[in-house]
Amino acid sequence: MTTTDEHIVITRRMLEHADEFLCAGDLVQASEKGWGGAAHYMKAVAKHRGWRNESHRDFFTIESRLASETDNPNRLHSLFSSVRSLHQNFYEPLYSTSQVRVCIEDSKEFIDMLKRAGVMREPPADSLNGTAQDGGDGNI
Asked: Which of 45, 67, 83, 94 has its CA 20 to 30 A from that of 73?
């Protein structure tokens, strides 16, 4: 089972990979990594708080609960919608490079907005050992 810290490591790695795949022109993989970064961050918060995080449906509940803790819930909802579209683009690649780029930036803003809201006390980057894999824990 993946720990909260491992989800944070995966979040960072996914966003790095999203940028790398975008630069390489692989929009399908860039899309999935952009979605994966936000998804793993939400999983980290949910795990930290003892919330359910076992299905895609749970992401909607997690996001809704967290939105109320931000200074702009509507913006978080909008960002979440954009980020979810990256996951859809993985299965049905329709987006242009510029559209994927915008959505990846939205994924980063989504995570930054949650960090600014203080939804979870995140460990310092240098304390994370980076041993987590890109998923594979059997959860969403």
From this structure: 94
Q: Does residue 31 lie in a domain region? A: yes
Domain count, the chain: 1
- Provide the CATH number for the domain around residue 39: 1.20.120.330
Read off the pTM: 0.88
Express each pLDDT in 89-119 by its tens digit.
999 999 999 999 999 999 999 999 999 999 9
The DSSP annotation for the chain comes to: ---HHHHHHHHHHHHHHHHHHHHHT-HHHHHHHHHHHHHHHHHHHHHHHT---SSHHHHHHHHHHHHTTSS-HHHHHHHHHHHHHHHHHHHS----HHHHHHHHHHHHHHHHHHHHHT-S-PPPGGG------SS-SS--
Question: How do residues 2-53 score in pLDDT, each as one tens digit?
Answer: 999 999 999 999 999 999 999 999 999 999 999 999 999 999 999 999 999 9
